[in-house]
């Protein structure tokens, strides 16, 4: 019995050793390696005939290059083992497999047949894949080539509320030279006019492809560039019209609309779905709405047949960018920018009933057309070194609001009961301090009057009244009221804005100063207008919008009761209409305005000479439809807040009906 068992064990071992690998198991191993993209290991599974046609290095590199160039990902090769292996013959087996993957041109999927052959290597028999290029893609044969073509989308245009272009797809001149017609003198002239160095021109015309009679492009310039007549007068100069991004309003909307440019290496790391020469929004709304504006590049993957003809492997159609239409009025935008000419500051306009932003201006500015074509090094340095900071987008930043915050302080006090509109307060002189603990610090006012009630305090813009009002309501009530007025909150607005802040209010001096818009209070011009919409909407603030298709008149919160806002709104009319009002210079008899002036002092400590920012915000009270706000920097020697008052009045005069 023991002898029989021993014989059986020997037979079992011999049978196990002599059992050959099943072809389906062998192919399953190959498929697993393929899914893992282990191409070098896959090569070991190739038949002898297949290896004669391609080396391990070429096999591996071919797969790697194709998958990289076509951006192949999410690859899934599937092979279902048959229950019975009828396909396997004595020395050959045929199996069907399927492949799915994503590519730069969209999904690719196919089914294909693989033939495995039994071979003996190193005295061992095994199954090997009879590989050929059709395993990569079924229609790919030896000698064929894979190519990729792209179709660039048209970038979506940015339009104003009336369909006027703010950022459009227009044309510019591509300026170049015919090398055979250029001598040293004309080369120097061309270089000077195009703000290039002679060496840069030399390098361009010395490229390997250049011939004496060929056009060599050097730079792109706007169609209305004043240098064109001088350039065209030079013998070697030629021009071509080419498509480019054009900004019809130029500097007037540069900070708002922004500009585009060729993507940088750093930007490519953040946006891997872009190509090296793609155009991308660099700043402003061109950057904010990049995804909508850019569109999707059309891509076609083709197999170029050795004997002629083309097979399309995958195709993704081009999708042009989407149009973005703003609530902005180009005419008003241009007029506002003109009013700020030569000044550093910001201005904005809004329909206070609907919340639509009609203008958003920052001054000084830069030429977005030149920015899109590329600044010369000297031009860009001049912008950076300009003390008025033309590259700063002022309407997104926050500033000390000065006295334009007083109507908001008034509403906060009326709501919490700390301010009574008819209560008169005795104030002596132009300086005041709470007590001796303030040391040498005093709150000062311009107009000496006593007693003072809320109406007089607004008409005369009395700092002392509002400093005392803030102290009376206390830090907590003041903070709560200001937060209700959207301080310390991020406005839901398409263009990213800095958050308006109250500051620490660490002591009574800070609290008192904050009551009249100094201290650490900081406010953006869009937030200022948003808070003021409450005066024409029964105490409800209206959400500011910038897109024309966005819902209008969206409530953003109740700043104060209908009664309290009506009280303060009536006083704001008198700030303009009363001969003693700080904004009386803006009075237009047939076009009544309500508004508030402000002068914010910018200095490190009391007693030193600083600079002043002048503010003015106003809205028409007859069927309110237009609110304007303006801040001008450095008005200390120009008349203070009278600078923006006159400018805003001129704007109203130009648009009133």
UniProtKB/TrEMBL annotation:
It holds the Pfam family MecA_N. Coiled coil: none annotated. Belongs to the transpeptidase family. Residues 22-144 form the NTF2-like N-terminal transpeptidase domain. Its EC number is 3.4.16.4. This is serine-type D-Ala-D-Ala carboxypeptidase. One of its GO terms (molecular function) is peptidoglycan L,D-transpeptidase activity. GO terms for biological process: cell wall organization; peptidoglycan biosynthetic process; response to antibiotic. It is found in: Membrane. Keywords: Membrane, Signal, Transferase. It comes from the Bacteria. Its main location: membrane. It comes from Neobacillus massiliamazoniensis. Residues 1-18 form the signal peptide. Pathway: Cell wall biogenesis; peptidoglycan biosynthesis. Residues 345-648 form the Penicillin-binding protein transpeptidase domain. Residues 152-308 form the Penicillin-binding protein dimerisation domain. PANTHER family: PENICILLIN-BINDING PROTEIN 3 (PTHR30627:SF25), PEPTIDOGLYCAN D,D-TRANSPEPTIDASE (PTHR30627). One of its GO terms (cellular component) is plasma membrane. It catalyses: Preferential cleavage: (Ac)2-L-Lys-D-Ala-|-D-Ala. Also transpeptidation of peptidyl-alanyl moieties that are N-acyl substituents of D-alanine.
């Amino acid at each position: 019995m023991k002898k029989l068992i021993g014989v059986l064990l020997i037979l079992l071992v011999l049978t196990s050793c002599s059992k050959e690998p099943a072809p389906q198991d062998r192919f399953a191993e190959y498929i697993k390696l393929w899914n893992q993209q282990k191409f070098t290991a896959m090569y070991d599974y190739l038949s002898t005939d297949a290896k004669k046609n391609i080396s391990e290095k070429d096999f591996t590199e071919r797969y790697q290059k194709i998958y990289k160039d076509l951006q192949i990902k999410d690859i899934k090769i599937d092979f279902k083992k048959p229950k019975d292996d009828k396909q396997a013959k004595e020395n050959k087996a045929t199996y069907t497999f399927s492949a799915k993957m994503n590519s730069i041109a969209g999904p690719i999927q196919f089914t294909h047949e693989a033939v495995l052959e039994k071979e003996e290597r190193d005295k061992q028999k095994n199954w090997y894949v009879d590989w050929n290029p059709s395993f990569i893609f079924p229609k790919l044969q030896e000698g064929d080539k894979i190519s990729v073509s792209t179709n660039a989308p048209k970038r979506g245009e940015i339009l104003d509320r009336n369909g006027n272009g703010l950022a459009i797809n227009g044309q510019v001149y591509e300026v170049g030279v015919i090398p055979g017609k250029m001598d040293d003198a004309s080369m120097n002239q061309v270089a000077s006019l195009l703000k290039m160095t002679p060496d840069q021109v030399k390098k361009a015309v010395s490229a390997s492809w250049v011939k004496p009679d060929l056009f060599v492009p050097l730079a792109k310039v706007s169609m209305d560039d004043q240098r064109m007549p001088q350039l065209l007068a030079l013998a070697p100069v030629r021009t071509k019209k080419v498509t480019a991004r054009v900004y019809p309003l130029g500097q007037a909307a540069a900070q708002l609309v922004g500009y585009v440019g060729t993507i940088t290496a750093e930007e490519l790391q953040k946006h891997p779905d872009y190509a090296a020469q793609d155009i991308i929004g660099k700043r402003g709304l061109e950057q904010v709405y990049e995804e909508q504006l850019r569109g999707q590049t059309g891509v076609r993957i083709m197999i170029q047949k050795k004997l002629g003809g083309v097979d399309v492997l995958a195709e993704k159609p081009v999708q042009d960018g989407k149009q973005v239409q703003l609530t902005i009025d180009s005419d008003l935008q241009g007029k506002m920018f003109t009013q700020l000419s030569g000044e550093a500051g910001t201005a904005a306009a809004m329909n206070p009933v609907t919340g639509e932003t009609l203008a958003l201006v920052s001054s000084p500015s830069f030429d977005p057309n030149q920015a899109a074509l590329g600044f010369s090094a000297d031009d860009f340095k001049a912008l950076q070194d300009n003390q008025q900071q033309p590259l700063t987008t002022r309407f997104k930043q926050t500033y000390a609001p000065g006295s334009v915050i007083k109507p908001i302080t008034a509403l906060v006090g009326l709501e919490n009961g700390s301010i009574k509109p008819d209560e008169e307060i005795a104030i002596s002189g132009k300086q005041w301090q709470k007590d001796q603990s303030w040391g040498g610090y005093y709150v000062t006012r311009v107009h000496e009057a006593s007693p003072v009630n809320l109406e007089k305090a607004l008409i005369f813009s009395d700092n002392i009244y509002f400093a005392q009002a803030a102290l009376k309501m206390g830090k907590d009530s003041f903070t709560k009221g200001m937060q209700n007025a959207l301080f310390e909150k991020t406005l839901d607005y398409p263009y990213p804005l800095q958050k308006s802040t109250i500051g620490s209010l660490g002591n009574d001096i800070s609290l008192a100063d904050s009551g009249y818009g100094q201290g650490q209070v900081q406010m953006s011009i869009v937030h200022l207008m948003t808070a003021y919409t409450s005066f024409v909407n029964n105490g409800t603030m209206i959400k500011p919008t910038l897109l024309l298709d966005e819902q209008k008149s969206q409530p953003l919160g109740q700043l104060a009761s209908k009664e309290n806002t009506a009280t303060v709104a009536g006083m704001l009319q008198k700030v303009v209409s009363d001969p003693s009002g700080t904004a009386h210079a803006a009075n237009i008899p047939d076009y009544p305005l309500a508004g508030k002036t402000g002068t914010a002092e910018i200095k490190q400590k009391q007693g030193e000479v600083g600079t002043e920012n002048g503010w003015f915000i106003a809205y028409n009270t007859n069927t309110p439809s237009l609110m304007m706000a303006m801040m001008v920097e450095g008005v200390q020697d120009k008349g203070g807040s009278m600078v923006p008052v006159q400018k805003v009045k001129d704007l109203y005069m130009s648009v009133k009906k």
